Amino acid sequence: MSERSWRELDLFAPTPEHALLAETLREFVTREVEPQAQAHDRAERFNVPLFRKAGELGLLGVTLAEEHGGSGMDATAAVQVMEALSTSDPGFALSVLAHAILFAQNVNVNGSDAQRAHVLPRAASGEWVGGMCMTEPSVGTDVLAMRTTARRDGDGYLLAGTKTFITNGGIDDQTLGDCFVVYARTGERAISSFLVEKGTPGFSLGQKWSDKLGMRASFTAELVFDDVRLPPSARLGEEGEGTLQMMRNLEVERLTLAAMSLGIAQRSLATMVDYANERQSFGVPIREHGQVQRYIAESFAEWRAARSLVYDTARRIDLGRTGQRVDADAAKLVASQVGKRAADAAIQVLGGYGYMGEYAVERLWRDAKLLEIGGGTLEAHHKNLTKDLCRDPSLVQG
Ligand SMILES: Cc1cc2nc3c(=O)[nH]c(=O)nc-3n(C[C@H](O)[C@H](O)[C@H](O)COP(=O)(O)OP(=O)(O)OC[C@H]3O[C@@H](n4cnc5c(N)ncnc54)[C@H](O)[C@@H]3O)c2cc1C
Predict the structure, then answer these.
(1) Which of 150, 200, 321, 369 is at 20 to 30 A from 230, Cα to Cα?
(2) pLDDT (tens digit, 9 = 90+) per residue, 170-227?
(3) Protein residue with its CA nearest to atom 44 in ligand 1
(4) Buried b (16+ CB within 10 A) or exposed e, 267-285
(5) 165 lines ligand 1 (CB under 6 A)
(6) Among 241, 251, 253, 302, which one carries the catalytic annotation?
(7) Of 100, 129, 158, which residue sits at a domain end?
(8) Relative to the CA of 380, which ligand 1 atom is closest?
(9) Please, which pLDDT band fits residue 99 given cuts at 50, 70 and 90?
């Protein structure tokens, strides 16, 4: 590559396909996502028609193969989708992420040809709303201590347990999501994963988590598995492979969650810059005040640094293989805090108006907090990163 073309490489839209996707996202977000965002947050309602429109545009299957109705793109494209949606409606974006990454991309990598052919076209179109069930009422970070079991029963399994905080667990108070990847214990130390579809006897919607702090446009629920009989064909991969599958999926999960924080930071920055140009105090625009400048400049520098880390990690992630765990953890650790700080700074710069719903930053501020908890808490990232770096000190050589 010549020096000129190397310098021209755009980390955030490296190919014409990525540039086209960015354009599609800009239009979709402006025309379809933004006008509904505030109302769905207030009503705590998941927008199913909007979800289906995202499917029509190829946004739900961006990482899936074209033969399964996907767009056949990469981790960078997945980051672009989650970042753009989160500039407007992080709650809706979280539902898309749970469906497209935690569920569909999981099946794409860990499923058989038959499972892919059955699940992925329905996931890519948005006909199905899917999710992933790892967390339980008494087990979150310590996920390998899960209590849900899948006991051998003839040539199949009996799945028993309760999962909680499941995004897309339902699509409304009465209606279960359509299909889930469920992790369960198949031996004292062995975890396996299973596909469980709505309508399977014994599978039901438990408590809906209403009145959430943020991400209110996504539906969070408890799911109950009461001796659900599953055929061997419901298992993803081999028995006992669940932990490895979980780790594989967590990399792209954390990366795309980090991308959501980038979207939140970007919108917060744009809002505070516009406001600082327009609002006057003491006879000058508030951009003239040093303390306001600090909020804007620090937020910009942090967002720019986090964005470079997220996209650089995306560029190196080979979907479906482990290998970028350290950078994916680092990206989410940094970006989640940058997103929350930027939303907080935006409220401060807007003063009383920032506290009101009209400017959206109060919603972004509430949504931003989840990204320090879901998909791994800040403390889990501290623990994982330190363990990995101390095991392999060469990772900190430049
Ligand atoms: C809105 C929302 C959507 C979600 N969607 C999903 C989903 O779709 N699917 C799914 O499976 N889960 C989902 N989750 C669950 C989420 O991933 C968990 O909440 C998260 O992993 C933390 O688990 P926990 O809540 O049980 O907290 P705990 O693990 O009980 O942690 C409580 C506190 O203790 C700290 N802690 C725990 N262990 C350690 C340790 N070893 N060292 C230091 N500190 C520690 C934690 O960091 C935290 O501060 C969702 C959660 C929310 C709130």
Answers:
(1) 321
(2) 999 899 999 999 999 999 989 999 999 999 999 999 999 999 999 999 999 999 999 9
(3) 379
(4) bbbebbbebbeeeeeeeee
(5) yes
(6) 253
(7) 129
(8) 47
(9) very high
